[in-house]
Every structure is written in structure tokens, then in C-alpha cells.
Amino acid sequence: MTTKSKQDHAIEQASAALSENVPVGKGSHVYLIDGSGYIFRAFHALPPLTRPSDGLPVGAVHGFCQMLWKLLRETKASEAPTHMGVIFDAGRETFRNQIYPQYKAQRPPPPEELIPQFPLIRDAVRAFNVACVELDGYEADDLIATYSRRAVDVGGDVTVVSSDKDLMQLVRPGVTMFDGMKSKRIGRDEVIEKFGVPPEKVVDVQSLAGDSVDNVPGVPGIGIKTAAELIAAYGDLDTLLARAGEIKQPKRREKLIEFAEQARISRSLVLLKDDVVLETAIDALGVRDPQVDALLGFLRMMEFNTLTKRIAEGLGAEAPPPLAVSVGASVRVSPQQVNLDVIEAGAPQDASPAAAVAAGAAIARAQAIDRSKYETVTTRARLEEWVRRAREAGRVAFDTETTDLSALDAELVGISLAVAPGEACYIPLGHTGPSGDLFGGDDNRPQQLAANEALALIGPLLEDPSVLKIGQNIKYDALVMKRRGIEIVSFDDTMLLSYALDGGRGQHGMDALAERHLGHMCMTFAQAMGHAPGAKKSDKTFAAMPLDKATEYAAEDADVTMRLWMALKPRLAAERMATVYETLERPLVPVIVGMEHAGIKVDRDILSRLSHAFAQRTVRLEEEINGLVGHKFNLGSPKQLGELLFDRLKLPGGKKTKSGQWETRANLLDDLAANEEIDGDARRLINTMLEWRQMTKLKSTYTDALPAYINAETGRIHTSYALGATTTGRLASSDPNLQNIPIRTKEGREIRTAFIADKGMQLISADYSQIELRVLAHVADIPQLKKAFAEGLDIHAMTASEMFGVPVKDMPSEVRRRAKAINFGIIYGISAFGLANQLSISREEASDYIKTYFQRFPGIRDYMDATKKQVHAHGHVETIFGRRIHYPEINTKNPSMRGFLERAAINAPIQGSAADIIRRAMIRMPAALVDAKLSSARMLLQVHDELVFEVADNEASALITTARRVMETAAEPALKLAVPIHVDAKAANNWDEAH
């Protein structure tokens, strides 16, 4: 289902009005606004500014709207242009990059906080009812040049609104420039003052002088002044280059002769193209007055309250009320709004973040939660009223009730909404009576709206960018809605707010958050359903719940979510965690929704064959074990296992429980296998038991279980990713967990062969190479590691060489293996005991290895000591991108617990930074795939440091190039790592071959 908000329709109607052509001719005056120049001027004109309701950066949008409104008012009062358009750059790549690949290559990407404002600024132009023009492959300057020529050719006049020197070549009779910031006209005299030559010679001067900003090479050693003198003396560039041998100054003569071709290339770069085939005709730029509803609606959506009032007054209209938070019968402006209002008024931004936090918490707790006041919505009229109230408030808490924890399998049972604390409702859609039939018939069963009818009303609300949707784990609800053709846009997630603010301090589920922040215990499913003690939730689905209890349960979820948002959102600014939330948490939600929705194809036949093979292998291992034991033995019996190992074989390490039985913990066999004192038949028995255990686990966990997860409709497995489950920012996979399939064993790799590409497609695995070691080299500033990574050396061989004095060339594999174990072990705070078990060496030898490691790489010890000091002093550590991981119990008096937490704190900035890097890559990937025109490409899986894609055969190579570029530059521009990031990528028909 495709739905649009009234706001969208208003802007579309305004844009459609522009298609009514007004011919350009004698007497016409065309204003061409350099949109890209406006954006950057606006961005740097104001201090950082965010939208109060959701923290979205809007400083450039605000400044742009101010500048455009000022221009519209001033020109209407004086010159009254007949045509006007704002011209934008469509992208970084243009035809000039084909001429000279280094063109603008040195320019850094735009600031991260500016990127989400680009589309909003284009929306602003349309809201002002001004033509918005861009064209792939060309710069805005080329379009301005083309429009200018066409206007002058038919007798019109042109004003180019810009101060960009590159546009000064266009100045001529009929074409002038206007610098709106300085209210200054730029004509022929001003160009001569700038370049020393008239406008028609500007290109020649720029071709010689080059331009470091755009990476136009020019001729080395020749600047603007010298270039102007040369062009004045010889007339034009071609004449100068042809007569370069006549120049008396030796260096200047030699440079002009040597770099003549470079000057000609530079000319092709700076010369603006004035014959572009335009998609928007110049006649379509006719000036139209702003459409009041569209413009004021857009400004209200952006929460520019002062600017909205000012423009409304200028249009002779009534300003719409600002977005507000309703508390009982009163209406209050959001506490964060004060910061924006202060900036709009031009005063210092001195509103207290602490005051905003206190106000938010107070509003959230202002009313006690009273479930009896929630409304059950069963008529269209009442639902329309709730949707209207949500639009008026500008925000709505939203939650779905379904029949299944898997969003891909769940049937929608109902939806709950809240517009303010205590003001919530439940809309039942799929509740059934005792017989299993849907409620709502000719008998006396309770009524409910048809799902299609309700979604036709709610869908536009969810897709309206001017209304903020607030959810708790909104990823699930977004996927439920996506299956029904509805995209949730403009949202906040209270789970992720908590995760960004309080990672490590506790759970982030609704029940835990409600108790922690609101002092409220949420109703449980069992309470709502009326289950008897001990009954399972799975005994009944939500669809069977009586409507009165369903309303209490579901509407409470929405009510609590709204209150949590009020308590948590103001803390982002106060605790300086807005960047973490805005760049690492919230934008990842739609990416994960897309991945879960896509799923990955799995071949049942391969799994069946593997399951059969594993079963046969298990039987053979059981026979071997029975032979070694001397009788039939049940490996699954802890009692028999304990008696065999410690009573009969007398192996070391046995401990008895209080009941007198031998303790058989999960890693008992692993510990015994690492014990060098055990040999002979006992060691063979233990190793065979471990192999049997691995085989049975692979069979039960994967080859037997995975087919049950294959979706009947899609034929694909749709794993679920938890965004706020780990303390370090790593994603967790479940139902099924695809992150734990072993890749170091032959059998584990065989399981991956069952994950296949669709017909005509290929799977691509793009895997970060040693990303955590690279992060360690950066954060601990280890010269040897940085040098090795910079030179592309084998990092483990280099470490072994440093530690053991063994040449890298022809290094024994066992020596390298030990160094590898130490490299990765150090990251996880491995102890001598742990390293001894891993390498099957004595604890003394392992201790010596670790001691030598720190001697060779003292920076690592310094990092560890500094991190421990940091966590004990502040209770948290940070990743390189500002994510905080809290350890509230770090100063415990329990030495064992304190040591464990210290090791975790040492690892967290490394693992967390690596997790943040791949998050940043994932967030940028969808747009990168669109920009690369990879229409068939889909990102399917994230497995630790690896991303898995599916793409058409003929686009595989291009996808590999794009994925590598995005992943390898993911840390930038926020951070330039001290070591290069490398990604290995490969295409194949199945996951194993692609890895």
C-alpha cells in the first residue's frame, strides 16, 4: 500500500504548479540560485542545531529557509523576477571525472550532520513553491550556464544568486551575479577586480592558475596574478601556449611548455557547459507564490517555531500551533524546543540541558498510569479522531500486537497508540472469539475494524515524516508494517535511546525501563490473559485475549513508551550522546528491517544430506567410544560420564556435588583435553567424545533445526537481529542464530554450503581483515603493528618474529599459530591459564609468552593500564566513536569479579569500535548501492565482521568494488585510523565458497 501525508500532497501540488510553463522572452528576468552554495553558507552560518523532537540535525535547513525567504521578499519588493529556480549538484561524479579522475578527489565527504539535511533542503525549496533542479552527471554550475544562455538568447535577463568565482565566467550583457550574504551585485568590473581580466577571459586565467579546492592542476608556479598578466599580453590560452617559447623568464617558459597539455585539461574542467540537455525546461521556472499550507506545514514539521511565525505573518496567514506535548488538560512546548527558539531569535544558546532532562522526567511521571482510562477503538470515526490528535501533537507512540515473535510469521492482531501520558488507545483488528472466529459478526460478539480499513487510516500517519513515531524495539513493528506495504518513517526507539545512554547499566526491555525510569510495573501477558500459575504464554495467542484486557495490556505499552521517550530523549543532549544515537543506532533500524525482510535462501536437500551424514558419523563415533570404554556407554548421561572419568579412569580435576555425584560442567572435556598429563587411550577417548559432541551439536542445532526456520512463502531464512543486546554494540542473531556456525571445521563449512544464491544471482561475502587488531594498533598506538598493517605484512608472523626472534620468511606454522593465539587472546584479556589451555602448553610457558608480548609491545600494557584507570574513575569506557560501555560494579571488593570486569573494560573499546565501524558501513551501504546503480543488490546478513550480499551475476564485480569502498572508509570522516582497513570480498554460488 502506498500512502502519503497531507504535507506530501501539498508539496507535490506546489511542484505540479511549476509545470505550468511561463515562456521566457524579452522582459523576462530569471533568477538562478546556486543551491549548493546556499547549503554550505547556511550550514556554517549557524551553530549546530537539532530538531527538538528527535535530535535530527537541521541547522543548514533552517539557515537555507531564512536565506531563501529573505531573497523572495526582497526580490518581490524590487525586481520581481518572472522565473526562479534553485539549482543543486546531483552528486560528486560528473563528466569532468572522466576527463580528469582526480577532479575534486581530495575533497572530504560532507560533514555527517549535513548529509541527512540534503533531501530536507530540497523539500524546503518545493515547499516555497520554487523550482528545484538537478541533473545526474552535471554540476549545478553547468545547469546555471545552460539556463543563462537560453534566457539571454531569447532576450531575457539573468541574475545568478551566488558568490562562487567559478560562475563569474558567465557575466556578460544580460547576466549578472548577486551575493545575497553581502547584498552585492557582481558585474564586469567586479570580475576584473577579482581576476584581473574581463569575464570572457576568466576561463583562460583559471586554466593556468588551477584551483586547489577543486583539484584543477593548472600550471605549477603560476597564480591568478601571473595568469592574468600572461593572458592580457597574449590574448588567450591557445595563443599563449603556442608562443610559450618566446617568454623571457626561464622558469615560467619551461613550466608552460612542460605543462601545456595540463593547462588544456584544466580548461576543459573549469569551462562551464552551456548546452546541457535539460530535463526541466526554462519555461517551467515561472515564479509562483508559496502555497501557505505546504510551506507552513513544512516549517512546523521542522519545528522552526519563530521562523514559522515570521513567514506566516509575511504571508498574511495564521501560524499553525507548534508541536506540543500534552499533559492532562495543559499543553507545553517540548523542553528541548527552548534551545531552537533561542537560536532562531539570534541569542546565545544558553538553555540548560539539565533543565530539559528534569522537565522530561517530570512530564513522564506527571500522571499515574491508570489502565481503566484507555480506549478501545472499534469505529472508523474514533480512529480518525485518534489519527487527527496524533497529527496535531506531531508525535505518537506506536506498538503492534501479533500472534508470533517472528515478525515475518506474525499475524497482526491490533495496534496501540498514545499521544500523551495517560492518553492511549487500542485498535483491535484480529481478535477471535471462543470458537476461533474473528470478533464482529451478526451475533453479540464485540466489534472491531477490518484490518484493511484501519491500515488505510493509520498507514499515512506512519509514513508522514512530519509526525514522529515512537516505539520500543520499533524494528519489529516496522517489519510487521513493511509486510503490509507500509514504511515507518521519522521515528525514535526508546530501547535504542536507553542503549545509547545506559549500555551496560541494565536491560533495555520495556518492563525493565518502566520500572527503572517510571517506577511502574507493567502488566504481564499472563496477567492479561488470566493464565493459571505455571501456564505458558504459548498456551494462547494474543488474538484470544478478551478485548478489555487486551486494551489494558496493549495501550499500556504505548503509554509507557511515550513516557520513556520523554524521560530519555532530553538526556541525549545533556550527556552528549546524541551523535552515538543519531549515527550508530537509529539509522541502523531501517537497514536491519531490510535485511530481515530479505532473508537468505537455504537448500533443504543439502541440509538433509548433511544431517544424514552427521548421523552416520555420530553412530561410528559412538561405536568407537563404546569400544574404548568396553561396554555400551551413554554419553548424554552426566552420572555415567562422571563415573567413567573419575572413578574408573582416575583422571585429575574431578569434583563432587553436594549430592555426591561427580560434577560434569559443560567445558569439562575441553579442560581434560588440554591437560598434558593425560595420554594414551584416555586422551583418545576424550578427543573422540569431543568429536561426538561437536557432531551431535551441528546436527541438532543446524542441519536438523534450520529447515524449520525456512519461511513457507519465501523459501528463505529470516534471522532476527537484536540491536541492543550486547554491551559493546555488536549485533546478536537469533531464530536462528547464524553467527555461531563454526567456520574453522570442515563440517561447519559444509553447513554454509546450504546457504545459496537465488537463480541468476551470486552471494558475496565481504569480510573485515583483522579489524580488532587494527583498532588495537590505533587506540594503543603500537608502532610495530601500525607499520606491519601499513606495509601489508602478515601480522601474526610479524608478532612471532618480534616475540621469538624467528625470521618471517619460512616461519614454521606452529610458531605463527602461537603468535596468532596471543594476538587475539590479548584483545580478550586472556590469562596464562587460558592461553596454556588454548596452545596445550604449561601455564609457566604461557605466562612467559604474555610477559614477552608486553615487553615487545609496551604500548599495549600502557593502554590496558590507562583503560583500567579510566573505568575505575568514571565507571565507563568509550569506543573511538563515543559509545559508552558502563561498568557500575567495577569498584567491587570481590577481586575475582573486579578482575573480570577490568578485562571486559579493556576489550570493550576495541570490540566496540570494530562493531561501530561495521555499523557505520551498514548504514551507508543502501545509499551506496543505489548510487552505484546496483538495482539487484541486497544486503542479507551481518556475521561479526562480515557482510553477506546477494546480487545478479552481471553486477557482482561492481558490488564487490562498492562494498569494499564503503566498508574500508566507514570510519571516515569522523575518524582517520592510524592503520588502513582491509576487506576481503568474493562472489560465489553459496556462502562457504564466497568466504
Automatic annotation (TrEMBL):
Coiled coil: none annotated. It holds the Pfam family DNA_pol_A_exo1. Its EC number is 2.7.7.7. Residues 748-955 form the DNA-directed DNA polymerase family A palm domain. It catalyses: DNA(n) + a 2'-deoxyribonucleoside 5'-triphosphate = DNA(n+1) + diphosphate. PROSITE patterns: DNA_POLYMERASE_A. In addition to polymerase activity, this DNA polymerase exhibits 3'-5' and 5'-3' exonuclease activity. This is DNA polymerase I.
